[in-house]
Amino acid sequence: MNLALFVPCFVDQLFPNVAISAVQVLERLGHRVEFPAAQTCCGQPAFNSGYWDEARDVASHFLDVFADAEAIVCPSGSCSTMIRQFYAELFRGRSDAGVAAQMAAKTFEFTEFLVRKLGVTDLDARFEAKVAWHDACHGLRELHLKEEPRRLLRAVRGLELLEMKECETCCGFGGTFSIKFPGVSTAMDEVKVASIEQCGAQYVTSGDSSCLMQISGLLAKRNSSIRAIHIAEILASR
């Protein structure tokens, strides 16, 4: 397939290796991956903050940039959810509502695309470590991704997948939530990090770099040896 890679803002600015790893995985499977250079944000920050007119301007640009894509793959459950679930609400009753619906139908979160669309679980990856999976809120509750990433991780050579007690508990990031309510955000993160530590993991992984940034920040403050890594980076490892 000819795939268009949508790189979320967090990945673009702070974790570029996540996007590089996603491309490596997809190209090893024989697909052609393009990066539309004109892409920007999906509009989620403005949408979540109540600035729907501004979000619609950004989202309209997204519709234009990815109009010709056969399929869009995004290494983020959060941004994928914005396009898949919330564009319908953002463009409801407007002339481009149909275009938004078409865009939603061809947009996939990274692990979702591998398992549900391509039917692939074994990527011949190797990662020698004990790893815990964090169920990011949007991926779990909006895209219903639970077993898909775990199937991919179980197929990685040398990787021992550990389940933490609080795997489905929010890390407390929530975009601007962590800025507006830092005390609550930190308290939530403490629950998550304690659960990661208790399960004996050496790494914690997820499909969202924003969650991993939140978690890794507290891990660093606790001088923990546990590291955060995006699942695309694990699946690209040899």
Walk me through what this model shows.
The chain contains 13 helices and eight strands. 51% of the residues lie in helices and 15% in strands. It has two domains: 2-116, no CATH class; 122-235, Rossmann fold (3-Layer(aba) Sandwich). It has 238 residues and is of the alpha/beta class. The longest helix is centred in the last third of the chain and has 17 residues, at 182-198. The strands form two sheets. It has a four-stranded parallel sheet with strand order 2-1-3-4, sandwiched between helices.
Secondary-structure map:
Elements: E1 2-5, H1 9-14, H2 16-28, E2 32-34, H3 44-48, H4 52-65, E3 71-74, H5 77-90, H6 97-105, E4 107-109, H7 110-117, E5 126-133, H8 137-141, H9 147-154, E6 157-162, H10 177-180, H11 182-198, E7 203-206, H12 209-221, E8 227-230, H13 231-235
Parallel strand pairs: 1-2, 1-3, 3-4, 5-6, 5-7, 7-8
Note the run of SSEs as H and E.
Answer: EHHEHHEHHEHEHHEHHEHEH
What is the average per-residue confidence, as pLDDT, rounded to a whole number?
97
**How helical, in percent, are the residues?**
40-55%
Distance between the termini: 24 Å
The number of helical runs is: 13
Low-pLDDT residue intervals, each spanning 5 or more residues: none
List key phrases describing it:
single chain; about 240 residues; alpha/beta; Rossmann fold; 4-stranded parallel beta sheet; 8 strands; about 50% helix; globular
